[in-house]
Amino acid sequence: MNPNWWPGSYSKAIQPNNAIINMFLRIMLLFLITMAFGAQAADMSWQSRKTADLVAEARTLLDLGKVTRATEKQLEQIVLTLGSRAPSPDARGLVEQLSQREPQILVAHEEGNTMIPFVDVGAAARVTQRRWTRAAARTNALRAIRAGDPQFLQNYFSADAAGQAGAIDAVGELQVQYLVFYRDQIIDRIEEPGADKLAAAAAAALADIALYESVLTTGTPAIALAAIRELEQTVGADAALRLLKLALRRPDIASASLYEVGRLSATLPVAKNLLWTSLSDPGLGSSAAAVLARHADRNTVNRLATLLDSTENLVQKRALLALRLSGDARAKQIARDWLAQSRPDNESDR
Amino acid sequence: MRFLTLVIAGLLVSQFASALCEFENGTISNPDDPLCRDTQLVYTENDDSGDNIALGYPPPIPVDTLTAVDGFRTYSSLFAQHQDLMLTRDTVGGSVVGQTQLDRDIWAYSIGDVDNLTNDGRPEGAVIINGGIHAREWQSPEVLTEIFEQLVERSDDAHIGQYLRDNLNVVLLPVINIDGFIQTQTFPTRATADERQPRDGRMRRKNLRNPSGGVVDNQLDTTDDSFFGVDLNRNSVHGYGLNGGSSANPISLIYRGTAHSSESEILALQAATGLGPADRLRLGIDVHSFSSVYFTPRTGNTRRDAITLGLATRMRAVTNFKYRYSPGPIGSTGIGSLDNYYAFEFQIPSYTLEIEPLNGGQDYGGTGASHSGFVLPDSEITRVRDEIAATLLLGFYRQSGPPHVTAVHITNLARDEVVYAAQWVADGVGRRLEVTTDRAIVPSDDHRIYIAFNKPMRWYDANGNLSNYAGQSSTAGQLELNEPDGLFGISLQLAPNPDWLDVPGGPPDGYLNYRGDAFTRDMPLSQMGLTVGEPKSVALQIELTDIAEMALDADPSTPVDWQNGHWTGYEDSMLAGGDTGGADCTFIVFLADDANATAPPKVAECQAGAPPPLPPPPPPPQPAGGGGGGSGLWLLPLMLLAARRR
After folding, report:
1. What's residue A348's pLDDT?
2. ipTM of the complex as predicted
3. Which of A254, B41, B99, B534 has the most CB atoms lying inside 10 A of its own CB?
């Protein structure tokens, strides 16, 4: 370390109290460096410790039978750390035992007048068990898919949620040539529980339009919603727009899909046109207004202003909505002026 | 040696690198210590290393969508949805009632018809509900938006939604602490300080007021302002600074501000009560999360406190009592929270409704990490929205007012003739009974009775079938015809169900205003072998409860209203004012063997609430060969007789 870097090293005439201050600053700096190093060291101390040592420590705590906040926190940390690595038989036994543990210490809720668990070792243990199941399923799926095992799909549909999640983890890691083999089978079985998640993962990995179509038309809302948010990145803007038009037919994800269309509108004029035509749609119009407001430039504001004179009541109201939602000051003023003109006596909107 | 000592000390202390904040009386006491203040926490699904906190499920990321999804909408989406409903629906009005610290508009919405009058022309009651006062409680704005949407969607349902539209004004503020909420959504996985009391980012609770005069910035890495803000749920006037429930320390999580109502967000809420208007309010709910409980003040107004308990019991029943009930000490003005404000300012039932979970993320299979209760998984919010909306709908229905009988028609089926028709009509400040047809009920003929009420009395499930509302069991009810001398009574159980009408058209076959607001019931009098001799006036005693288990207003001549924490004009079977209701005995018909008989003086009175009649005298010995039972009315073979209610 360059001693010239120390505070005060540039001053030639050091007064006695400055000497004390400088010593204090040096000690603090050293302490802070130690803390920074120490923080990493503490973290590394959990991660670097052997499974057997962690298990032994937990057993010691349990055998001592002393329940404090520190011991409960330690047990939780041990259990969660074990979840990040392959389990030994002893670790499995420990976690299985702890998975039945009720919260031992309650603390006051911040709202007062009720108590909640300080730490829930049992819950942490159950999460660890699911992580192990997921990790094992991932390993098995990697092996099966690489081998082109025809049983892979059947095993997938028979697995629980953690098992299916592990298989999907594997799909996300594999190269295209391994996944193509299962593509058509996944589409054929898209109606089965969990198929949409697998199809979505395969679609992303393969950048496959047909798989995305099956997800967007028949997938559960949560899976379909997640899928539309990655379309541009995986299949490109043009294909993404075609798929989003498909998604617009589903009321449960149509609004979110329009937001994605909005994100494409910067590069695809046809996407912007889709927003304008959606403005008059009874189901989509409010979302179209919100998206237009988010991407409003001067031309957009001008066009919305002209729509305030529309004879179509719904279009007029959606244009007003877009102007009001816009972050553009001019747009907001146009909306205010129009309202004042059309409802001069009403203080509130109705 | 000295150096080594420092290194060892650092290593030891650094075991708690993620927990270097110190606490005194629940408040961080070393906020300027960088090791506390600058710690950057990250919520993850599974990574618990370093300053990461594993939830056991993916931390939700806000979604841009106006439509409710399995997830949490961005504030801009929620706001767009609210504004669209206001601009496109006649039943929704809105006003800017104030601004946040960052000068964002705070909107309050009124849901109901424009006239603010009930169906019979009286001022409507009002309820107020708010959400998003604590920024990190994401469940709250979603629930508020859901009930907002449902009230609008149901407003033409010819059932409970339309009834509420016509008869109640719902004032709704979906998000009060807009600045804080947006801060949490800007950093959906990050927080600062200490896992035991995470503060900024996703875990911000307070608003963005900076005591130096500015506002907290939206940079999570600049942490010198992370602890600042006012707890808006400690800033209201009632109980401000009292009972140890808040702090004068700006660092504190429960910092109450420099004075009550110092915060513009609270002033906005106060302004919003005027949309009720304030003197029409009957219910105030402040929606929070978490811990699955109704907190409620008890003002010491015994009737108001009892009504508050009763209402909460019905609402909790909707979700099978998984929500607990936690009333405060009687008369305690509380801690400056909004439920205190609603309760003491307006003497109305008021709750802090803490939405689930009960314990934390472990309730959904998560790790139960500290503060995970504020991070509801995406997969749970749809159910939570639906459950709480159903709960609130029932609460609004109940506080709109009790049921009363509005009309009765009786048809002689043998002659196909309406023999009795009467309805309560508005008459100045009260109501009067307008009888348009009053002919004899001939006991040798079968009849059918039609009874209509002022509100839907029965629930229909999604398939249109009669059903109980979740957690409720409306009593099947009883219909009695009582002769004043007690010589006979005809009792008809309304079980399992009379024919509740779900087609429009009014009497004799259609509902009056809403599905389930009227029913018909056959009266097979011919099977009873009754003869009456002289025409006898008879009171109809009608007794049943509505969807939310409220009994009838026994005297519709005095319209029910709300004042000073209790119902007014809500009479029981003894016609005494109170909060429980009873049997309606206001419709008096007459029985005569001759269809053209003249009506006798109407002197019949209700047996409900009266002491049981004396047993009838033993029958006189029958002469040989004699028959008939003209005077033996007490021998009526009542095929449908049930135990008389008193």
Report:
1. 54
2. 0.87
3. B41
